[in-house]
Design a protein that fits this description.
The protein has ten helices and eleven strands. By secondary structure, it is α/β, with parallel strands linked by helices. It has two domains: about 170 residues, Aspartate/ornithine carbamoyltransferase (Rossmann fold, 3-Layer(aba) Sandwich), CATH 3.40.50; about 140 residues, Rossmann fold.
């Protein structure tokens, strides 16, 4: 077992690198809960309860500090990464997760290389995929793509982004970073001094990463004092998310200038583009951060990446930078998910998965 004992970033990257062991110290992983994922698909955050999210994150923390390559957890398994939309971090982090666990990859790096270019339906592709692999990771431009491929697909599916819909494993990676930063948020009763004001930049009603992040944040409502959403749209949530927020009883407000609320925020979830009506638009100065911004001393910044000029590189070398940890941790979150979905928990070291 290789352990990171001091919280230093083993990859030598800039920014804050919370020690993963703090998430599992004196808190054993409940593998009975993780076993419930065997053979399942992950298409929406709405499938999760807080208990499951915590166990996935604890398992990911264990994987981050433990060398299990010699146990070959995914040996003999074939994962199809089907990306009909451009991707860097999501696709490569999934493929890295598989290969580091000794699984094998069949990859569709772009949709135009498939029969879709000739008009083949996703439902027909799903039928073919049943014979080719053991699990599908799919990203697609159409929000309806998950429903379409699952018409005939009998393998587990991980939704890696469906149009303006959701991106549930991104939300897991987001909250993995937050929980490593402040493990007390996993408790059912969080002391007021440990609660956070959460700022979200973007339009959750039409942007998949912030949609899934907001949905998952509501599972941790006892740790959230207030949610503040920064958007140029008059209604960035839409009726469904508005109702979910209201029923959570977490106070929330909207603003169109991050600078008006920045000094009150403990966690800021940034984005490089915002969806306005039917098009994407780059952000102006009301939506940008740099090292001179009025951030609280211990505030942290998340970003699903890729970034443009809304997040200045001069923040990279500060302890506000949790976004590199967020990106790095995605590999371990996806390892935890893959091992659980493919029912390979019995391949872990015997003293771990009892």
């Amino acid at each position: 077992m290789k352990e990171n004992t001091n919280g230093d970033n083993p990859m030598g990257s800039h920014g804050l690198y919370p020690n993963p062991q703090e998430l599992i110290r004196q808190d054993e992983i409940n593998f009975e809960i993780l076993k419930k994922l065997a053979g399942k698909s992950i298409v929406s955050v709405d499938q999760f309860e807080k208990e499951m999210v915590l166990e996935i994150c604890k398992f990911a923390a264990f994987l981050e500090v433990t060398d299990i390559a010699s146990h070959h957890p995914l040996d003999g398994k074939i994962i199809i990464t089907a990306f009909f939309e451009a991707s860097t971090r999501t696709r490569l982090s999934f493929e890295s997760a598989v290969l580091r666990l000794d699984g094998k990859i069949i990859s569709i790096p772009m949709g135009k290389t498939t029969g879709a270019a000739k008009g083949e339906s996703l439902s027909d592709m799903g039928e073919m995929f049943n014979a080719y692999g053991d699990l599908i990771v799919m990203r697609h431009t159409n929000t309806s793509s998950v429903e379409e491929i699952m018409e005939n697909l009998r393998l587990p599916l991980i939704n890696a982004g469906n149009g303006s819909g959701e991106h549930p494993t991104q939300a897991l990676a987001d909250w993995f970073a937050i929980l490593k930063w402040k493990p007390r948020l996993k408790e059912n009763i969080v002391k007021e001094k440990d609660q956070i004001n959460l700022g979200i930049l973007g339009t959750p009603g039409s942007m998949r990463a912030v949609n899934s992040f907001l949905r998952m944040s509501l599972l941790f409502k006892t740790g959230i004092r207030k949610i503040l959403i920064v958007s140029e749209m008059a209604d960035p949530l839409g009726p469904e998310l508005t109702e979910l927020l209201k029923s959570s009883n977490i106070p929330f407000q909207m603003t169109n200038d991050i600078n008006e609320i920045l000094s009150d925020l403990d966690v800021i979830y940034m984005n490089s583009i915002t969806f306005l009506g039917d098009s994407y638009k780059s952000l102006d100065s009301r939506f940008k951060l740099n090292a001179q911004s009025n951030l609280k001393e211990d505030a942290v910044v998340l970003h699903p990446l890729a970034r443009l000029d809304e997040l200045d590189p001069d923040l990279d070398e500060t302890n506000h930078n949790l976004y590199f940890t967020q990106a790095h941790g995605a590999v371990f979150i996806r390892q935890a998910v893959l091992i659980s979905l493919l029912n390979r928990l019995d391949r872990l070291p015997k003293h771990v998965a009892k």
